[in-house]
Amino acid sequence: MAKKVSLIAMFSAFAIIISYVESFIPSIGIPGVKLGLANIVIVLAIYVLDVRYAIIIDIVRILVIGFLFGNLFSIYFAFGGAVFSILVMFILKKFFDFSIITVSIFGGVFHNVGQIVVAMIAVGTYNVIYYLPVLMIAGIICGAIVGILARVLYVRTSIICKRLGV
Amino acid sequence: MNNDITLRKYVFAKIKEHKKEALSIVVLIAISIVLFVGIRCFATNHGKYVKVYVNDKLTKTFKLDSDIRYMIETKKGYNFLIIKNNHAKIVDADCPNKICVDKGYISEDNESIICVPHNVVVTVDSDKEASVDAVAD
């Protein structure tokens, strides 16, 4: 039990720091487009640990970053994106056995799709769907970057985590 | 060691190994491109008014959203303007080159059909007042 808690804590801390550093990178014009580097940790957790760990790590990361640096809406959007993203990534990994980079690309795309869905519900207008194509393309690119970085980490940490007997 | 696998062969072999994945990514990219083009075509904003300027003076303002057949008559000739389906088009004119007729339809803000010999400008605008372009002095 202590092992699980400390693993979750380590991964969460990692994700939080990445999010924090990423917030210093200036954002491009389009709202909602960001690198999402924290997803490196989430994708890694899905492969090296278990989906349940990934979910908890994501929840911790969203809440901490949301309360420290964001607002209620940012938490909404982050959860919306995370739900779609982790769900799709889990399905792709478990039933299709895709590799890390592909799963990450899909995760990135569906993260943005989820955010658009949340935006439609929260703001109540369908106009946000005009952003969908751009966000999808951004999701593919950022997902690929995150995937490559996650793979680099996976290659180096999967053995260690297997030995920990997670 | 004689390793004669080139980079290209390596990449192709890798893609063949993960056929389903590569295909799914291609499909994903295709879908986003289709959405991109589709939503862009859908989302273009039609203008609101069609303005007719003769000799740089605003003579007529119509709503783009109407069904109008209007003969623009100038001292130098005529241009037959039709407004239909949120489009404006000059379908006939007696100018020598008929460039205004060939232009086709306009529907977006600041698009215009110009007939130089008759000094006629038909333009789409979202502003009710005459635009700056019309003031010649």
Could you characterize what this model shows?
The complex is a heterodimer of chains A (166) and B (137). Chain A is mainly alpha-helical and 166 residues long. Chain A has helices spanning 2-22, 39-48, 51-69, 72-96, 100-123, 132-164. The termini of chain A are close together. Chain B has 137 residues and is an alpha+beta fold. A 4-stranded antiparallel beta sheet of chain B has the order 2-1-8-7. Chain B has a 4-stranded antiparallel beta sheet with strand order 3-4-5-6. At the A-B interface, α5 and α6 of A face α2 of B.
**What's the number of extended β-strand segments of chain A?**
0
Structural class of chain B: alpha+beta
Largest interface: which pair? A-B, 15 and 15 residues
Gyration radius from CA atoms of chain A, angstroms:
15 Å
- The total of helices of chain A stands at 6
Number of strands of chain B: 8
Radius of gyration of chain B: 26 Å
Main beta-sheet strand count, sense and barrel state of chain B: 4 strands, antiparallel
Shape of chain B from CA axes?
Answer: elongated
The separation of the N and C termini of chain A measures 10 Å
| Low-confidence residue ranges of chain A | none
- Average per-residue pLDDT of chain B, rounded, comes to 82
Percentage of β-strand residues of chain B:
25-35%
Q: Give average pLDDT of chain A, whole number.
A: 89
Sequence of secondary-structure elements of chain B: HHEEEEEHEEE
Please tell me what the overall shape of chain A is: globular
Relative helix content of chain A:
over 70%
**Strand proportion of chain A:** under 5%
Q: What oligomeric arrangement do these chains adopt?
A: heterodimer
What share of residues of chain B is helical? 25-40%
Largest sheet of chain A: none
